[in-house]
TrEMBL record:
The keyword Hydrolase does not apply. This is LemA family protein. Belongs to the LemA family. Keywords: Membrane, Transmembrane, Transmembrane helix. It comes from Ligilactobacillus agilis. Pfam families: LemA (PF04011). It is a single-pass membrane protein. The chain crosses the membrane at residues 6-24. It is found in: Membrane. GO terms for cellular component: membrane.
Length: 184
């Protein structure tokens, strides 16, 4: 009888262990999948940039430095290894800032603003930027869920046994956290 109780207890413990391990794996896969969503949106943006630069070139001849910077940042982003999340997001943030200055060109060049191709590209890039922001939030939520499992008992013991490691959050650049300076 006691042998049967010991066997039942061991089976229950094994099932609990398997459940915790599978939960950690699912959380890890969700985090990886949410990063892939960011990658997809970054690629989409990178694919739109050459069209935007080409459309803008004819209107903003003296803005070549800005256009060159956009192309340079785009190329940097495509050359970074897939697992360098922090570097990718840093370059992506720089690219976003530079794209904002191209969007501002539309105000200085009414003909450019009236160009349907430019307007369409601006809308697509704006939508893509919104998707990148959403994907970053999803990634951070997935990372939080995974990291929470790494820290809470008893799944933290299973995580240590299988060498699961914490996932870093995607941080907002310091300059974007600051309140905009307004003067009257």
């Amino acid at each position: 009888m006691t042998l049967l109780i010991v066997i039942v207890v061991l089976v229950i413990l094994a099932l609990i262990y398997i459940s915790m391990y599978n939960g950690l794996q699912k959380a890890k896969v969700n985090t990886e999948e949410s990063w892939s969503q960011i990658d997809v949106q970054l690629k989409r943006r990178n694919d739109l940039i050459p069209n935007l630069v080409e459309t803008t070139k004819g209107y903003a001849k003296h803005e070549k430095e800005t256009l060159a910077q956009v192309i340079n940042l785009r190329n940097q982003l495509t050359e970074l290894p897939a697992d360098t999340h922090a570097q990718k997001m840093e370059v992506s943030n720089q690219l976003t800032d530079t794209l904002k200055s191209i969007f501002a060109l539309a105000e200085a060049y009414p003909d450019l603003k009236a160009n349907q191709e430019f307007t369409k590209l601006m809308e697509e890039l704006t939508n893509t930027e919104n998707k990148i922001a959403y994907s970053r939030q999803l990634f951070n939520s997935s990372a939080a869920n995974f990291n929470q499992r790494l820290l809470t008992f008893p799944s933290n013991m299973v995580a240590k046994i299988h060498h699961f490691t914490k996932v870093d959050y995607l941080e907002v650049p310091t300059e974007e956290k600051e309140a905009p300076k307004v003067s009257f």
